[in-house]
Amino acid sequence: MLDLSWPELFFVAVLALVIIGPKDLPELFQLFTKLVSKLRRMYGDIQGSMAQLQKEVNIVSGKAQPGDDSWRDFLPPEVRGLPKDFVPGSLSADEHKARRQRIELARQQATSQNTTASDTPIEEKDNG
After folding, report:
1. Cα dist from 79 to 28, 75, 108, 120, whole Å
2. How many other CB atoms are there within 10 angstroms of residue 22's CB atom?
């Protein structure tokens, strides 16, 4: 711990009782325990962040362990469908531009199909 013996700890406790007083000593202990619990939480958060950073570095460097693919669940659906061997930045500028044009054309076709489907009136059958 702090390499304090029992007589030294007893002396510190008596000194704290005399200096701080018996009224304020419980409040000081509460403050100390809150501080220690906050430091433990911060330490746990830092450890979790470092583990996450290590996992991300392993994924980017290609050294990912089995089960490290949980990050794919957080991707948007259109990106989730990319092939496993897809490398970001592997498309040339022309390929990227052509791909964007195909995506935009598909979006326009989808919106035009949705608008024409909603604009067409529903015909009522005459049962008479």
Report:
1. 54, 6, 20, 34
2. 8
